[in-house]
Specification:
By secondary structure, the protein is mainly α. It has seven helices and no strands. α5 packs across α7. The longest helix has 82 residues. It starts with a helix and ends in a 12-residue tail after the last helix.
Length: 237
């Protein structure tokens, strides 16, 4: 421990010496700066006149300062105008994208309608094959136990009902117009027999579907056509 004390004292001495040297250096630099600045100021005044002349030149510079403010405003305007044009272009691009999305949605709806029409055409084709050949009607027979002529009549009634359903889906008929057509169609006892045979299956449709809305319209027409407003009873399951 006795050997380390001189080392510690020497370190403190070096630190104090460096601190004093730094302070002296700062003072010297400050003094030199003051002297050099005064010398430069005297040189400028000797070349351009006294301080009164400098004040006059400063006032003249203030006039040009106003012109500089005008140019600064013009520069700011030139900066703002391109930003406004860019904002307008972005707005037009957003409108174009929105129009493209609307066109895509319309195309998607049209494709869906086209697919539904193809499916309906296939259903009509299959039903036509059943009408032409009673043997095929036994394969997809929703009217088991009925004679062939009744099956054919029910198949045709179903085709007629599907026609009004597709026309309603495509917006050809309003609900009031569809109810009018349904009232004319259900005057036929053959159609009411078909409705009694198929009503139970149609009643199981999703309440929010278009087919369910169609079912409710025709069911109302059948109820109005039935004696005393009684809905025809569904056949036992």
């Amino acid at each position: 421990m006795a050997q380390r004390q001189p080392v510690a004292g020497h370190s403190w001495f070096k630190a104090i010496a460096w601190l004093l040297a730094s302070l002296v250096g700062i003072l010297l630099v400050g003094a030199v700066s003051v002297v050099v600045g005064g010398w430069l100021l005297d040189g400028v005044e000797s070349m351009n006149g006294d301080r009164q002349d400098a004040a006059e030149r400063s006032a003249l510079g203030d006039y040009f300062g106003g012109v500089s403010a005008v140019f600064s405003g013009l520069a700011l305007l030139l900066l703002v105008v391109p930003l406004l044009f860019q904002q307008r272009e972005l707005q037009l691009q957003r409108q174009e994208l929105a129009a493209q999305r609307s066109e895509l949605a319309a195309s998607r709806d049209e494709l869906r309608r086209s697919a539904a029409a193809d499916l309906r055409a296939l259903h009509v084709q299959l039903t036509q094959m059943q009408l032409d050949d009673p043997v095929l009607a036994e394969v997809w027979n929703d009217y088991a136990g009925e004679p062939p002529e009744v099956v054919r009549q029910n198949l045709f009634a179903n085709l007629t009902y599907s026609h009004f359903l597709l026309a309603s889906q495509w917006g050809e008929y309003s609900d009031e117009e569809l109810l009018t057509h349904a009232r004319g169609l259900v005057r036929s006892p053959v159609f009411r027999r078909y409705w009694a045979a198929s009503r139970e299956r149609k009643a199981l449709l999703s309440p929010d579907s278009h087919e369910a809305r169609m079912f409710r319209i025709f069911d109302r027409a059948v109820s109005e056509a039935a004696p005393d407003g009684q809905r025809p009873a569904s056949p036992p399951a």
